[in-house]
Amino acid sequence: MxxxxxxxxxxxxxxxxxxxAAIFVLSERCNVHLVARSNYDVLKDRGLKLVxxxxxxxxxxxxxxxxxxxxxxxxSGTKFNYTEKTSIVLFQNGVGAEEPLHASFPxxxxxxxxxxxxxxxxxxxxxxxxxxxxxTIGVDYAAQIDRKTQDDALKLFVDVLKAxxxxxxxxxxIQSERWVKVIWNACWNAVTTAxxxxxxxxxxxxxxxxxxxxxxxxEVAAVARAKGLTxxxxxEEGLIVKCTSVKEGLPSSMMFDYLAGRPMEVEVILGTPxxxxxxxxxPVPSLTAMYSIVKALDWKNAHPEEAKI
Length: 309
Description:
Layout: E1 7-11, H1 15-27, E2 31-35, H2 40-45, E3 48-51, E4 58-61, E5 65-67, H3 70-75, E6 88-90, H4 98-104, E7 110-115, E8 118-123, E9 126-130, E10 135-139, H5 147-163, E11 168-170, H6 174-195, H7 199-205, H8 209-226, H9 235-244, H10 253-259, H11 266-280, H12 285-302
Parallel strand pairs: 1-2, 2-5, 3-9, 6-7, 10-11
Antiparallel strand pairs: 3-4, 7-10, 8-9
Helix pairs in contact: 1-5, 6-8, 6-10, 6-12, 8-9, 8-11, 8-12, 11-12
């Protein structure tokens, strides 16, 4: 890399964060810095181990900087290209996460993505990428920022991803794409977390499980359409097929967060669609039920003593 190569600061190096940190390194187009928490020591001292049929197996991918906190990264003196000073990129599940960022950083381009990548943590500092890898990405445009500035920030980031081998697709309507993804997440993340079962076990346990799954998806899709977003006909059934075609079933990141006692992405995956449905007058009874159950599980993790029976 040259001295003018972009400096990317990636916050959160779990399964998905680790895969894309590896892609950034493999691109050889940028300097990669991480804010790591529980895996800080391993990533700083040894690097990242990646197991991937697509990107190859790597025992010790090295980074240009590893920090415990954002404050520590800021104190390093490095000028990062994808932070509040220049651009912010979201790889987070769910919907509605862009609004507070626009409010806090009104002059900063916000780039948002839908990630369709299979990945899991094998051990501290070790991650496996499996099944597919790909994401859809676009600018969540802010009217007060010059369009070219926002598009240029996106192009630079996409070029890095492509150089690293990512199957990335650019869209001009990222919100519709994110809502299509949350149709998937609101269903499968919720039911796997509530039951602590992979999707195939959940669907096989009751003759009504698929009915519930279709109802959750249909409600989220109806909310998205009521917002004026594009959800193609057949989307829900396509997502059902995509899930059920995986015979061994699927877990979810939300389920893993629950089992590990971590805070879950309840609000952006279930809360925002629920509140938008209520605001727009769209009936959301199944979504209300799943939100209430998963919210209670999130509270249980946060209050272990009070939650004891």
